[in-house]
Design brief:
InterPro entries: Quino_amine_DH_bsu, WD40/YVTN_repeat-like_dom_sf. The chain is mainly β. The chain is built from 1 helix and 33 strands. The protein has a domain of about 280 residues: Neuraminidase (6 Propeller). Helices cover about 0% and strands about 45% of the residues.
């Protein structure tokens, strides 16, 4: 396969993964019977590879679209996968477990994997929906972000990997308290800083030996808050989407949304209004940040340029989209969005229709709309990779 941009498209309900070249939309790889964890998402690894978790088979998959076989490695892990992260080298990975299709957290299993040696181990930590980061390449630490009670729990990766069989319980080497409402994780590999989004703002901590030292909280600068946190590898910044308004899910068309950008070098924060409705995950292209906005009055792809200019491109309506008087979560279609910091292409799905819009972020124009042959229920999930695009500089699954 030529070293061109490729798009991973997962229909986690139908159980398929397809690989498309961009922008022509040609299918060059396909997996069937693979139900990927939409919540754990895709994790960029060096060399254009991508990791994800098959929730039905209980396997961590390493996918290489530029090799002869798409599946480079499959390693058994505990599921349902909640969050996925690796160390900055892409060698050591951690997978936490969460709700799955259950009404309350029930699993406390954590899996760690060393891709270089093939070793893997499962341990018991704490029931919940923990976020995870893996700090450092030499003697890395696994940091679990827990809720209710909130905490950053620090474990030595080597200790976890050396655990005996039988999924033994483990005790954190160190604990740093957090508010109870943490949701969203990021790390900066060079500085070994870890970030957690809470109602108060973005809590930050830096590695000190085998523990963490708290640093100043970064405020949201708005009455709203972010539920998602992402490292911008292009310009060393953090991104989130701030959601405000009445938290009642039935009031979702009235929710406010702001793009939150915090420059880690200058400490400056910039807020940009995105419009009302449902906006959640975002994607980072070469010179733009992409958001999909769902609203009963019309959906759109919002492209925020590095110069602060906002471009809005209408998207065709989805059958089964969230409606007024209902929630935006249960039994409805949504959209996924993807981009690569090494490309100007942006991809956004049309849930329920099996379509992907491939858009040039520079012009805002749609270049192709491939149909995948599966519905892409709930919007599916996407990842766009270009060899050596630097996306692996963000070692947290998205």
């Amino acid at each position: 396969m030529p070293a061109t941009p490729v798009l991973f498209v997962s229909d986690h309900v139908a159980g398929s993964v397809q690989v498309l070249t961009v922008p022509d939309g040609a299918v060059v790889g396909r997996l069937t019977g693979r139900h990927l964890s939409e919540h754990a998402g895709f994790l960029a690894l060096p060399g254009g590879r991508t990791a994800c978790v098959d929730d039905r088979r209980g396997e961590l998959l390493v996918l290489n679209p530029y090799a002869g076989e798409l599946v480079e490695r499959a390693v058994p892990v505990a599921v349902p996968a909640e969050h996925l992260a690796c160390d900055p080298s892409g060698r050591r990975l951690a997978v936490t477990t969460g709700l799955g299709r259950n009404g309350a957290p029930w699993s406390d299993l954590l899996t760690v994997v060393d891709l270089a040696t093939g070793e893997a181990a499962r341990v018991r930590t704490r029931v919940g929906e923990p976020g995870v980061t893996v700090l450092g390449e030499d003697e890395p630490l696994v940091v679990l972000r827990h809720r209710e009670p909130g905490a950053l729990a620090v474990h030595r990766f080597a200790d976890l990997l050396a655990a005996p069989p039988g999924c033994p319980p483990v005790t954190p080497h160190a604990i740093l308290p957090l508010p109870d409402d943490g949701h969203g994780d990021a790390q900066v590999p060079g500085s070994q800083e870890v970030f957690a989004a809470t109602g108060e703002g973005v809590h930050r901590a830096r590695r000190r030996g085998d523990a963490l030292a708290a640093e100043a909280v970064v405020p949201w600068g708005s009455p709203a808050r972010g539920w998602y946190l992402r490292l911008d590898t292009r310009r060393q910044a953090l991104w989130s989407t701030l959601r405000g308004g009445d938290p009642d899910p039935l009031r979702w068309p009235e929710w406010s949304n702001q793009a939150w950008h915090h420059d880690l070098r200058t400490g400056r924060t910039r807020l940009t209004d995105l419009g009302p409705g449902l906006v959640f995950r975002l994607a980072l292209a070469r010179r733009h940040t992409a958001f999909s906005r769902i609203h009963p009055d019309g959906d759109e792809l919002v492209l925020l340029g590095a110069d602060g200019v906002v471009r809005r491109s209408p998207l065709p309506a989805m059958d089964g989209a969230p409606r007024r008087g209902g929630t935006p979560w249960e039994g409805v279609q949504r959209r996924a969005v993807a981009a690569s910091p090494g490309s100007d292409w942006v991809a956004v799905t049309r849930g329920g229709h099996g379509e992907v819009h491939l858009v040039d972020a520079e012009s805002g124009q749609e270049a192709a709309r491939p149909r995948l042959g599966t519905p892409l229920h709930h919007g599916g999930h996407l990842a766009l990779r270009v060899p050596d695009d630097g996306a692996d500089g963000d070692p947290v699954g998205r």
